[in-house]
Design brief:
There is one protein chain. The chain has helices at about 20-25, 30-40, 50-55, 65-80, 110-125, 145-160, 175, 200-205, 210, 230-240, 245, 255-275, 290-305, 335-345; strands spanning about 5-10, 45-50, 85-90, 130-135, 170, 190-200, 275-280, 310-315. With about 350 residues, the protein is α/β, with parallel strands linked by helices. The chain has one domain: TIM Barrel, CATH 3.20.20. The two termini are about 20 Å apart.
Length: about 350
Amino acid sequence: MATFRHGVNLGGWLSQCEQRARHLHYGSFIIGDDIRRIADWGFDHVRLPVDSTVFTNADGQYDMDVLAYIDQCLFWCQNAGLGLQLDMHRLPGYYIATPQQNDLFASQPHMAESRRLWRMLTKRFIGTGAALRFELLNEPEWPSTYPVNDFYADLIACVREIDANRVLVIGGNHYSHVDSLESMTLYHDPAIVYTFHYYEPNLFTNQLYHYSRGDRSGYPHPVDYPGMIPQLREYLDAHPEKAEENGRYCWIPNDQALIHKHLQKACDFQNHFHRTTYMGEFGVSYYAQSDARCAWLRDVLAFANANHIDWCYWTYKDMDYGLLNSQGKVISWAVVNTLQAGCKG
């Protein structure tokens, strides 16, 4: 039976991808050999991010040819003994890359479209067993948490009308930050999992990502681990808009103690409320030095495994964090080996 303890994301396949020549991309970015490799490396599940726009036509009808790629992935996973978590990375009225345009949590038409979409997916996979889980939305963000919690209550009820047992994964407001766990509605439903994402500090995990794309407001220096973030005061003096998020790292080292402080919040939530938590995304960009990536990953994985926090690495291929580059070649075997060791924990 598939489990969901140690996984890897398949970002960039059916989400966050260009629409040009899309079927060429969908048919080649991830293939059966990738799923078998993931299983051989020791992972027990994949998280499949999907944008609703990739399978929803302009007239609102669902594209069965695109949905067939999800079916194919599920088939590959079943054959390889892997679980599959279907993550809705984008819904009508919500996408993390377009914050100024998002209105899902205040739009009845978009809520209705989201209910319709999840009803369709629930019916489509009603005969599939526990090896498939649904994540209702990736990284919600809204000024107030109450509409986000109401949104989840609505969709949970919608799915439960059709499937009483499907495991559903939900994340807190403010991009599913670990601090948001405490503000989530708790359900008396053992098939609800509470997810969070961990990329702290972002100046380390996301290092050189924006700067490499010509965004000169991005932090321009490589960052090691463990240690202090170099030249941070000078950077914040030049970019004061970044100070609220990053100012504390002028005096707080990026080290194991910081990881433990953050992840202890998930551990406390799990132990106090007797709910299952899941670290659905974490990772370090491949612009970082391999040794630093490995050291950070070892400390995150050691804490998560010791405290029964299930996890899923971001991400398998390309997307600036990938284990493989866009040509399918392993970028750092040291990083792969670190994750493999974590799978045994």
